[in-house]
Design a protein that fits this description.
Blueprint lengths: L1 E6 L7 H14 L6 E4 L3 H5 L3 E3 L7 H8 L18 H13 L2 E8 L1 H16 L5 E6 L15 H19 L6 E7 L6 H4 L14 E3 L7 H14 L2 E7 L30 H12 L3 E6 L3 H4 L6 H19 L5 E9 L4 E8 L24 H7 L11 E2 L2 E2 L9
Parallel strand pairs: 1-2, 1-4, 4-5, 5-10, 6-8, 6-9, 7-8
Antiparallel strand pairs: 2-3, 10-11, 12-13
Helix pairs in contact: 1-3, 1-11
């Protein structure tokens, strides 16, 4: 039998590691012949744009390099599979039948699990024996039914290390200053909250953390900043891009483009600059804002070994689940303990994940809504552990590339 794998949604440091895991497990299975990769996610299946991964991943060195390379080596997409479109589903079935594909693995976030759910339901309804398994991925850590998501630990490690470096830079001058660091997180503040791991190394920064899950007040924010300026020379603030006011509107609504993606999600940015202007106008101190932007999801030079290892493992387990006959499932982490850190990999219904969002627990936000509790530190710390042996050439990381692609 043949299998196909695809990658979807926003890139991460670990999505290629999951692809490597799928490839590794499939290569060890004597019943699996061709291992296809779909170009640009589900769009590659619709358009019959597949590549034989054995012609791309030819050596163990290639495989190891793939694990450490950020972004989606097969390309990605943000395509919402329609509810009822026989033409589209017909093209998908045609591609699978033409290439004799019996199992399909989709690596992505909650929107990608929507595709897993719809495809598996369509196949069941039409008595088509093709197994569909979702493999989780997102730096937002907002997927239901899993303790955490591949890609998140590496993003958290990068964000925390960057804030530590910003703190060192900001503290060299005698003048009081405020630095606002804007961090990805539309409606779920996991990534901004994870900056609390710096407390494990006795760092003061970030002094304030603001998340979408706690209603934001400009007045309280200014009070917090003034108080912190009375205690610290350089105040560092971590904010999620999706901060919301008490009425549910985004706090930086006036700075947004107003545009939506194909899933109806607003493109967000601007809260850092918005708060910078407020601090400058109302407090008058030296202030700057920093938007970390895409670096949060592609900084493989400081990836978490735990994250990469788990991402490979969950890809391998996805193949085992499909071989055992499961379909319409997403692979998930179940945390057994924090210390020592230990997880199991289980399967959950993709329908319980699709189009849903796991928010940061409100009980892990302090009463003032400007920081997180020690429970959050216990949760985050295991996910950023370990360093990788990055192959270097001419002083720069070597990364896996497919010649003449993209």
């Amino acid at each position: 039998m043949n299998i196909a794998a695809a990658q979807s949604g926003g890139p991460t440091c670990a999505i290629n590691a999951s692809l490597a895991g799928i490839f590794t497990a499939a290569s060890k299975c004597p019943d699996i012949d061709k291992i296809y990769g779909s170009v640009n996610g589900i769009e590659g299946i619709i358009n019959d744009e597949l590549v034989d991964l054995r012609t791309i991943i030819r050596t163990n060195e290639d495989l190891e390099l793939l694990k450490l390379t950020p972004s989606t080596v097969l390309g990605s997409c943000r395509y919402k599979l329609p509810e009822n479109d026989e033409e589209i589903y017909g093209k998908i079935v045609q591609t699978f039948e033409k290439n004799k594909i019996d199992m399909f693995f989709y690596i992505g976030g909650n929107d990608s699990m929507d595709t897993v759910m719809k495809l598996s339901e369509y196949f069941k309804k039409n008595n088509i024996d093709i197994k569909v398994i979702g493999v989780p991925k997102t730096i937002d850590n907002d997927l239901m039914c899993t303790d955490h998501t591949p890609g998140f630990g590496s993003a958290a490690k990068y964000v925390a290390a960057t804030i530590q470096e910003i703190s060192r830079d900001s503290s060299v001058y005698s003048v009081k200053s405020v630095t606002i660091v804007e961090i990805m997180g539309r409606d779920a503040g996991w990534l901004a909250a994870s900056t609390c791991v710096l407390k494990a190394n006795d760092e003061n920064a970030p002094h304030l953390i603001y998340l979408p899950e706690a209603p934001f007040s400009v007045e309280r924010f200014l009070e917090d900043v003034r108080r912190m300026l009375g205690e610290h020379k350089a105040v560092i603030i971590a904010v999620s891009e999706g901060l919301k006011l008490s009425d549910g509107e985004y706090a930086a609504e006036g700075f947004q483009s107003g545009a939506n993606d194909s899933f109806g999600h607003k493109y967000l940015s601007g809260i850092g600059k918005c708060l910078e202007n407020i601090v400058r106008d109302e407090i008058g101190c030296k202030v700057r804002s920093i938007e970390l932007n895409v670096m949060q999801r592609c900084a493989s030079h400081i990836a978490s070994k735990t994250d990469i290892d788990e991402s490979v493992r969950i890809g391998e387990e996805a193949v085992k689940a499909a071989i055992s006959g499961q379909t319409g499932k997403m692979m998930a982490f179940k945390r057994i303990s924090d210390r020592p850190y230990f997880t199991e990999i289980v399967t959950v219904d993709a329908g319980d994940v699709a189009n849903k969002e796991k928010l940061f627990p409100k009980e892990w936000i302090n009463n003032q809504g400007n920081n997180v509790t020690p429970q959050a530190l216990d949760y985050f710390l295991p996910l950023i552990q370990g360093e990788l042996n990055i192959l270097m050439k001419n002083g720069l990381p070597v990364q896996f590339k497919i010649p003449n692609w993209f």
